[in-house]
Amino acid sequence: MMRHWSLIFFLACAVVILVWLIVEQVLHIPLMYGAQKLIDEPGVFSALAVVGFLSFDLLLPVPSSLVMVLSGAMFGVVGGALLSLVGSLAGNVLGFEIARRYGMGPSKRLVGAEQVERMSRVFSRYGIVAVILSRPVPVVMEALSVVCGLAGMNRRKFLVASLIGTVPICLAYAYAGSSSSEMGNVVPVFLAVVGIPALGWLLWKRKVGRSEGSDVVEDATT
Length: 222
Description:
Layout: H1 2-26, H2 31-40, H3 44-55, H4 64-102, H5 104-111, H6 113-126, H7 128-134, H8 140-150, H9 155-183, H10 187-207
């Protein structure tokens, strides 16, 4: 599954670079100037872009951490974190509702059959705790949102768990983006983009990751 998403990501990057070269070098349209202007003078379009990219993170190979950092750089710690939170929760709910409504087939196509099986075992044992701890971990977060929908988890509980797990991440990324913008230094961004997923992964493996390969059948959907 990880290879699959990595291939999609690199292909998407290649397409973006190709389109950029065509537009900038052939059509002579200054895309970089326009993008820089959106960051330097953020407005409604920039805010909608942040929310939109994060909302469709499950369907598109979007580097959500970078989007959250940019949100902080454009709108400050509070504003950037709020926009990231809205977009992230929308993305979580989208995966949850697709799985809840359309079942196993579309769910496996979204995150892969192997991830569905592994996260189902984790969710069966840890329930809401697993949802909270999965929020900083790429791939795991998307897969577990889908599994929660498949398991018929209470919508309110899922939203509360997602909120608890997502708020600190959005604040941390927004703070890194805002600090980098003020300092003119990319070190806070680098530390956040590398450190937050790494710490999230270590915590995940320490607390619940041992259940990914075990057979547990406890009910955690109520």
